[in-house]
Amino acid sequence: MIGRIVEVADDRRHLFLHRGFMVVQDTVGERKELGQIPLDDIAAVIANAHGLSYTNNLLVALAVRGAPFVLCAANHNAVGMLLPIEGNFEQSRRIEAQIAASLPTHKRLWAAVVRAKLEQQAAALEAAGSPTAPLTALVRKVKSGDPENMEAQGARRYWGLLFGQNFRRDQDGDGLNALLNYGYTVLRSAMARAVIAAGLHPGIGLHHSNDTNAMRLVDDLMEPFRPVVDLKVWQLWRNGELHVTPETKRALVGTLYDDMQSDIGATPVMVCMQKLATSIAQVYLGLRDKPDLPLPGLPLALAQGLREE
Fold this sequence. Notes:
By secondary structure, this protein is α/β, with parallel strands linked by helices. The chain has 2 domains: 4-67, CATH 3.100.10.20; 91-308, CRISPR-associated endonuclease Cas1, C-terminal domain (Four Helix Bundle (Hemerythrin (Met), subunit A)). It is 45% helix and 16% strand. It is built from 11 helices and 10 strands. The protein has helices spanning 56-64, 91-100, 103-127, 133-139, 150-163, 176-197, 216-221, 226-238, 246-254, 269-284, 300-308; strands at 4-8, 13-18, 21-26, 33-38, 42-47, 53-54, 69-72, 78-82, 259-262, 265-268. The strands form 3 sheets. The protein has a 4-stranded mixed sheet. β2 (13-18) and β3 (21-26) form a beta hairpin. α3 (103-127) runs parallel beside α8 (226-238) and α4 runs antiparallel to α5 (150-163). The longest helix is centred in the middle third of the chain and has 25 residues, at 103-127. 41% of the residues are buried.
């Protein structure tokens, strides 16, 4: 079952556990109950509000179910995430294999991730009516470990082609940047859940090596899915939506449930993430040679929506 990404974005809310449900309560006036969500339906909770409080037993119940609790800053970037310390029943064996994996294995996996990201970026550009050749030409040049940093070269070409030459990616920026931040926070929470469920350690990455980043593997594996968010932001921008609002948040969360092409046919983005994380664990264990990455192309619902506009 695909879980729900639940965001709490209104101020002065209290979250607590009651009989298997996460209950949302107003903290002013009569402290009315505003809603209930079954814990077993929740994939992640995004705390994106001021004056928010929550009980410890709720956080424990979410952790037991492997559902991340994500803390966001004012720029909609994730700054903290509560994750379980116990997960897959094979977790110890898989983490040991992850630690023991050779450098050539990590380099080979990272090259596959970079190629997939460039292919998805090219698909986003094609849907936006922009030239794809600058990205597709780089795919063939990616070598093991991406020593020539084709990923960064692709990014320099990609942002200008998608949003115009004056656009600059700025995590502290407003407008398009804030929309991208929010979309990436949603992606990151879903990928964190997938990594934990696969029995892997999120801090042992393929490429990202910042010592202060406890989510290096998560940030590595979400790279091929970023263009899904990018194109949705491009679509919102083209329709005059330049701010993070309840409507644009729903649109960005919705990308997780759109279908991408995979080796088994149309598959929701969130399931593609789960398949990728599981396949990485299988590579570490010597059960397969290649990661299970989404095939080139856009989520089908998003592509259909663009054709209808």
